[in-house]
Specification:
- This protein has 204 residues and is α/β, with parallel strands linked by helices.
- The protein has a single domain, classed as Alpha-Beta Complex (Spore Coat Polysaccharide Biosynthesis Protein SpsA, Chain A), CATH 3.90.550.
- It has a seven-stranded mixed beta sheet with strand order 5-4-1-6-8-7-9, with helices on both faces. A two-stranded antiparallel sheet has the order 2-3.
- Strand 7 and strand 8 form a beta hairpin.
- The longest helix has 13 residues.
């Protein structure tokens, strides 16, 4: 069983408002990510909220996804991953997705999940045409290492320190989707998706 863990607990300090709630087509940035995960072949989907949790939850309309809360979100994204692991139970592996990467659609998730299911390994990272990115896949054998992580970008330290034989590169014939940290990132993600962005600084 593969469980998708969507990390949507960030505080969005650089944007000045929760980026999870930014409009994205007929939903929000996080809503689009959750929709893609729910439409994929993943067996279960867990969404981790933290910063502005009540506001973010009010914008979500999850179908088969379950929502869990990370009260320690201020310590970095590793704490959200731990909350997601706790909620995932005892799967064969998890597929880690970022709540601010709406360009990772169900087709990408399915391609990565199918490659891992066909040849399960300790871990895997998606290799796009122009760089490495999410989703990451971690087998149950890697959960102990994940639980020892702290801070932000901690998962990348695993990718950097481990050889490719241990963290496989799963190739996807697409450009790397942007993650949203700034208004420029948001506008670029909207442009690629063919949706209109909200006005900079808009609260609605």
């Amino acid at each position: 069983m593969l469980v998708g863990v969507v990390l949507g607990a960030g505080s969005s300090r650089r944007l000045g408002r929760p980026k999870q709630t930014l409009p994205f087509g007929d939903t929000t940035v996080l809503g689009r990510v959750v929709r893609h995960a729910e439409a994929s072949s993943l067996d279960r989907v867990v969404v981790v909220l933290g910063g502005a949790a009540d506001e973010v939850r009010a914008t979500l309309a999850p179908g088969r996804a379950t929502v869990t809360l990370n009260t320690a979100y201020g310590t970095g994204c590793a704490s959200s991953l731990l909350a997601g692991l706790d909620a995932a139970g005892h799967p064969d592996g998890i597929v880690m997705l970022l709540g601010d990467m709406p360009g990772v659609d169900a087709a990408v998730i399915d391609e990565v999940a199918a490659a891992w299911r066909a040849d399960p390994g300790w871990a895997a990272v998606t290799s796009y045409e122009d760089g490495l990115g999410h989703p990451f896949v971690f087998s149950a054998a890697a959960f102990g290492d994940l639980r020892a992580l702290h801070g932000d970008k901690a998962v990348w330290k695993i990718v950097e320190r481990e050889p490719p034989e241990r963290v496989r590169r799963l190739r996807v014939a697409r450009p790397l989707p942007p993650d949203i940290d700034t208004w420029e990132d948001y506008r670029e993600a909207c442009r690629r998706a063919g949706v209109a962005p909200a006005a900079t600084g808009s609260t609605g």
